Hints:
Radius of gyration: 22 Å
Oligomer: single chain
Strand order of the largest sheet: 3-5-4
CATH class: Alpha Beta
Largest sheet: 3 strands, antiparallel
Strand content: 15-25%
Number of strands: 5
Amino acid sequence: MIRLEWPLGAALLVLVLTAGISQAQEPVVARHVLPNGLTVLVRDNDAAGVVAVSLQVRAGSRFETESTTGITNFLHRAMLRGTARRTAVQLAESSEDIGGSLDANGEVEAAEVRGQALAVHWETLLALVAEVALQPALRPDEIEKERRLLLGQIKARRATISSRTIARSISRIAWCSPSVVRSSAGE
């Protein structure tokens, strides 16, 4: 009897889950193109009292050369170390004051500055993301700190072989193009 109960229970669970999925509404995404060519995508979710902002540009490890590997990610991380108006600590405090956070990084095909905050502070969050993107200080001492931090992370990764390293090696062989699998971290 136990053998029949488990499959029956699993089948019922699958039916319940698939019924819920088929009735779920896909969120509507509104697309707006501003006069300057900037594309804005908006997806409302009234159930959440938060807002997320993501500013993305076409850049990343796919567009880097062997001599510039990792520069997109490095630059975006350095951008969070201060702007013309605020230090890194002040940026962090400003985002925490509105119940949120800021982050930036470069990936394979995009570089991003993003933030989250309580929805009532959406204008402040948008201003913070714009400040990081448009007015990064890029102070030499902060760039050096970021450089040392990234080099330490790269050395730590190289010290251990992982399934990710093996997968990256296989991808390089399969795709015959190092740019497709180039690490955004600069390795």
